[in-house]
Amino acid sequence: MKYKFVAMNKGYAREMINNWKYEEKYSVYDYCNEEEALLEEESWGFG
Questions:
Q1: CA–CA dist 38, 46 (Å, integer)
Q2: Which of 3, 16, 23, 28 counts the most CB atoms within 10 A of its CB?
Q3: Residue 16 CB partners (closer than 8 Å, separation 6+)
Q4: pTM of the prediction?
Q5: How confident is the model over 26-38, as a mean pLDDT?
Q6: 3-state helix, strand, coil in the chain (%, to 5)
Q7: What is the mean pLDDT of residues 16-44?
Q8: How much is the CA Rg of the chain, to the nearest whole Å?
Q9: Number of CB atoms found within 10 A of residue 44's CB
Q10: Total number of domains constituting the chain
Q11: pLDDT for the residue 44
Q12: Percent above pLDDT 70 for the chain
């Protein structure tokens, strides 16, 4: 499997928020719980 790293943008952030889902007891880690942080452009690329 090859990986490709690309710069974050609102479209990618929105895709992660809407689609990154864990099963049941791990759902606390779903990115929908981090929507505000993921859409904050100033933090992209800084961990």
A1: 12
A2: 16
A3: 31, 38
A4: 0.69
A5: 91
A6: 55, 0, 45
A7: 91
A8: 12
A9: 15
A10: 1
A11: 84
A12: 96
